[in-house]
Design a protein that fits this description.
384 residues; TIM Barrel; two-stranded antiparallel ribbon; 42% helix
């Protein structure tokens, strides 16, 4: 894949599409753009407001060749529905390699972003290379430079979009073990963006899968105008029950309740295989509830206060397929309310699919009642 990517970039450079124009200013925001509100002082006030609640659209530009995902691609009606539900921003993931394989792909991305912007949504564009590509970035500077070039092209393409309407998240879930290496990569990608668009607000997450532990172990970058993100799926044995990816045991976990106690998991434990029983029995003994979730989320809040920098939960959710309905609703309500009680921005995962806020085809969306209730979203007839 990488040689093909390199060839595509060479063609784009020859066509003059990878412009490096613009005076580099180190990402220092103008005085007019700054927000006087504490940890958000480097971020425009409108960004803080619109980042308060949002939703991910994860497969639109990352699984374009998968026909099973296409019914989930949003239309203008979807973005209008988001707004009527009180959602203020959308986070779009884009596959770096896909973006470069065809000259039409950047146009498709532009059309999608324009649809969301026209409906009044703030857009966060998050770069999501394949796992293989990320691991190569962890070892090879030339691969990092390829992604930096993609960001230069993207920043050039959207240079005229106001910096408080479009944010760039330079690398989603780095999946790289070397924390120091991730830091170097993130700075390189931010520098590439800021060469073209000095005022553009950027976001970064911690190494590995950008969990709260990864954020807490992260030293802030010496760059202004950065929002720090984390993902929250604790405990994974509940939120990922039934998942056909990741840890193989998740596939056999079904009907796991939340909150958890030794007593309420016992009927489930009896139906599991011996190896699975010990994991869910332990989950019950841990007594997962809002107070325990707060122990994790408070670590992110403390990091934000300690460094005087904004923190945002860019992903959280519960896989819908086999989780008890009331439990899913309760977990979402607890997580969402904990974020809001700490003045923390959040982005639900996902708009459509296994975690989806909606189900059904593009012309017949059905809102998932448990997700809607847990997220405290109220549908109105008109866009607020």
């Amino acid at each position: 894949m990488i040689p093909m990517l390199r060839y595509a970039l060479a063609l784009l450079m020859a066509a003059g599409l990878l412009s490096a124009c613009g005076e580099r200013e180190g990402g220092v925001l103008s005085a007019q753009a700054r927000n006087a509100d504490g940890v958000w002082s480097q971020i425009p006030a409108s960004v803080k407001s619109d980042l308060a609640r949002g939703v991910n659209v994860s497969t639109w530009f990352t699984h374009r060749t998968d026909a099973t995902q296409q019914p989930g691609w949003p239309t203008t009606n979807d973005f209008s529905l988001m707004r009527r539900m009180g959602i203020r921003h959308v986070r779009l993931l884009v596959d770096a390699e896909w973006l470069q394989l065809n000259g039409a792909h950047p146009r498709y991305l532009e059309e999608g972003i324009t649809q969301a912007l026209n409906e009044g949504l703030l857009v966060v564009l998050a770069m999501q290379p394949s796992k293989e590509h990320k691991l190569q970035m962890g070892e090879d500077d030339s691969v990092v430079e390829l992604v930096a070039d993609i960001w230069r092209q993207t920043a050039s393409q959207f240079k005229t979009v106001a910096h408080d309407r479009l944010l760039f998240e330079v690398l989603n879930e780095p999946e790289i073990e070397d924390v120091a290496r991730v830091r170097v990569i993130q700075k390189k990608l931010i520098e590439a963006v800021r060469e073209i668009s000095p005022e553009r607000i950027v976001a970064v997450g911690g190494a590995h899968y950008s969990d709260i532990d990864d954020l807490v172990n992260m030293a802030p970058l010496d760059v202004r105008g950065v929002i720090y993100s984390f993902h929250f799926y604790e405990p994974h044995n509940f939120t990922h029950q039934g998942a056909g990816w990741g840890w193989h045991m998740w596939m056999v976990f079904h009907n796991i309740p939340y909150p958890s106690t030794p007593e309420n998991v016992e009927p489930v434990v009896e139906k599991l295989t011996p190896l699975a029983r010990e994991h869910i029995a332990w989950y019950g003994q841990q007594e997962w509830n809002k107070k325990k979730l707060a122990e994790f989320i408070d670590q992110a809040a403390d990091w934000s206060k300690r460094h005087n920098l904004p923190v945002w939960c860019s992903e959280f959710g519960v896989l819908r397929d086999v989780a008890p309905s009331a439990s899913r609703r309760a977990w979402l309500n607890d997580a969402r309310s904990l974020f809001e009680e700490r003045n923390m921005a959040w982005t639900y995962f996902d708009w459509w699919g296994h975690f989806g806020l909606v189900t059904g085809p593009q012309d017949a969306r059905q809102i998932d009642e448990d997700a809607q209730a847990g997220l405290a979203l109220k549908l109105t007839q008109t866009t607020p």
